[in-house]
Amino acid sequence: MKARKLDISWPMASMADIAFLLIVFFMLTSAMSADRGIRHALASDSEGAPLAALTIRVYAHGFTLNDLPMDNNHQLADGIQELWAQGHRAPIIVMTEPDASYQQLIDAVDAIQRVEHRVRTTLETHIATARDRDLFLKSRQ
Q1: 54-139 has CATH 2.102.10 classification
Q2: Residue spans per domain, the chain
Q3: Are the C-beta atoms of 58 and 108 separated by less than 8 Å?
Q4: What would the mean pLDDT of 129-140 be, rounded to a whole number?
Q5: What is the DSSP string of 3-65?
Q6: Which helix or strand (DSSP H or E) is residue 92 part of?
């Protein structure tokens, strides 16, 4: 007598549905950790006083570095490097104004990268959100 083979099959269509539902469930219920705004502790100098961050503001037709006007990204890079040479090791905060173009922001980041290449180190850089910019402007009034 021959042994009879059992034909076991799983309905694959319902398996795909269950997999899809699980993916959707985990996408909707999981919390993504996103850095919102500027979260960093400012470095302190040898006397214990916190260093002020270097602030780059990007406008439609230029930049400011700690409220000093800069005409182009080469002048901005030279200003950052000069502050670095003077011992300023504080984080760099880049804030864009609403009328600034994306290219202006890229030019500011290029200036920072140019300084990183010159001094052979990575500079701590944060790009502020619109909300951060508004909070900064309110704090200065």
Answers
A1: no
A2: 54-139
A3: yes
A4: 76
A5: PPPP-----HHHHHHHHHHHHHHHHHH-------S---PPPB-TTSPBPPPEEEEEETTEEEE
A6: strand 92-96
Are 56 and 64 contacting, i.e. CB atoms less than 8 angstroms apart? yes
17/41 Cα distance (integer angstroms): 47
Q: Give me the pLDDT at residue 134, please.
A: 77
| Highest-pLDDT range among 10-19, 98-107, 122-131 | 98-107
Rounded distance, CA 36 to CA 29, Å?
20
The set of residues, in sequence order, having a beta carbon less than 8 Å from that of 98 and lying 6+ positions away, is: 130
Query: Residue 101 gets which letter from DSSP?
Result: -
| Whether residue 47 has pLDDT greater than 50 | no
pLDDT score of 75: 92
Percent of the chain predicted with pLDDT > 90: 16
Helix axes 102-119, 73-85, angle to 10 degrees: 40
pTM, two decimals, is: 0.59
Q: Binning pLDDT at 50, 70 and 90, where does residue 30 land?
A: confident
Residue 14 tokens read as 């319902």
Q: Is-contact 29 67, C-beta < 8 A?
A: no
